[in-house]
Amino acid sequence: MTSSSPSAGTRSAATTPVAGSDDAIAAAVSTIRRNIATFGGGFPGDTTVGDRYPLRPAEGGIPVGGNRGWTTSFRTGMLWLAWELTGDEVFHDAARIDVADFERRVRDEEDLDTHDLGFLYTLSTVAAWRLIGDEAARDASLLAADHLMRRFLEPAGIIQAWGDLSDPAQRGRTIIDSLMNMPLLTWAGEQTGDERFADAVRRHTEQLREHILREDDSTFHTFYWDAETGQPLRGATEQGAFDESCWARGQAWGVYGFAMNYAVTGDERLLEASRRCAEYFLRHLPSDDVPFWDLVYTDGSDAPRDSSAAAIVVCGLFELATVETDAERAAEWTARANAILASLIAHYTPAVPEASDALLLHSVYDLPKGNGVDEGTLWGDYFYLEALMRATRPEWRKYW
């Protein structure tokens, strides 16, 4: 594996820049640089509190600022993106510190009972392998993929989302976010030639297409199978307004995740699933193109917005455009992505970057539990920066 150089300073001549994108990148990079000084090797929490990220709370023997939970790699992914955008070694060096801690975390088997190993290791150690050929990071990524495969349930053909596999409350449950965890398994299969990884991706994504995507093109947040018989049981929500509503962030994961997994499986039904998710999402946007936290809410509602869902769907629409087989549709996906991104830049970023640790304001983590409502989020920040990267440097190679 050869190292790749940062993509600073290049832009396709065919690309029409989104208004304000260059200034938005400069502001984002400035905030990320400031946060390096603020947090050092410690990890910030999932969301801001009053627009400032606290250090991640201690839990389960892991100290304050420790590498636990499912969101820590979004900080690392931002560092890699900032390095690619600028070529500044301060971002490279900070990312390498994070990567070393992810290597330790998987070796020590610390807080690994989650399908989000895909998020955690794709944006940290897999990115390190792709960008700089880091062999230790490659080894850690393969170890994380093996851990993720332990969650694959036969005969249901799914990867369980959360918790200890013996927990009856979580047994046989997956969530739409899981589509974004499949790239770790795809990468591991490419690296090793082991067919069990590709088989798990194929079966898991097929089950989600069949059961988590509803007939009206909306999605369940979560779905349960009988882990022993494989029988599909029921859909539900954990973070949406109610079981039959359409949680905005979940629908955005569907756009991005189905498109990405279509690209590696070749299953045309996944391409159609991504299109269906995209069309439903876009039909339910308010006038400023940034969704409420659940798509049951429309213009005139006083419900909170979720800018993180908008950032994810921008990336998803760009991804869908790259795999779309219909040129007119591809152009439409790109145009809608640009419009949403322009609204985020204009209305959902700090007027003064120094006033917030977050790149993107007005996100929602988990409204039913009152967690991170109208705050910045690590994933919102990451996908906003990825969206800016995709919009301005279409030759960029994603980490997923």
Write the layout of secondary structure elements.
Elements: H1 21-39, H2 72-86, H3 89-107, H4 117-132, H5 135-149, E1 152-153, E2 158-159, E3 173-175, H6 182-192, H7 195-211, E4 222-225, E5 232-236, H8 248-265, H9 268-283, H10 307-323, H11 327-347, E6 363-366, E7 371-375, H12 378-392
Antiparallel strand pairs: 1-2, 3-4, 4-5, 6-7
Helix pairs in contact: 1-12, 2-3, 2-4, 2-12, 3-4, 3-5, 4-5, 4-6, 6-7, 8-9, 8-10, 9-10, 10-11, 10-12
Can you walk through the features of this model?
With 400 residues, the chain is mostly helical. The protein has one domain: Glycosyltransferase (Alpha/alpha barrel), CATH 1.50.10. It contains twelve helices and seven strands. The protein has helices at 21-39, 72-86, 89-107, 117-132, 135-149, 182-192, 195-211, 248-265, 268-283, 307-323, 327-347, 378-392; strands at residues 152-153, 158-159, 173-175, 222-225, 232-236, 363-366, 371-375. A three-stranded antiparallel beta sheet has the order 3-4-5, with no helix packed on it. It has a two-stranded antiparallel sheet with strand order 1-2. A hairpin with a 6-residue loop joins strand 4 (222-225) and strand 5 (232-236). Helix 2 (72-86) packs antiparallel against helix 3 (89-107), helix 4 (117-132) runs antiparallel to helix 5 (135-149) and helix 6 (182-192) runs antiparallel to helix 7 (195-211). The protein is globular. The protein starts with 20 loop residues before the first helix and ends in an 8-residue tail after the last helix. Mean pLDDT is 95; it is low at 1-14.
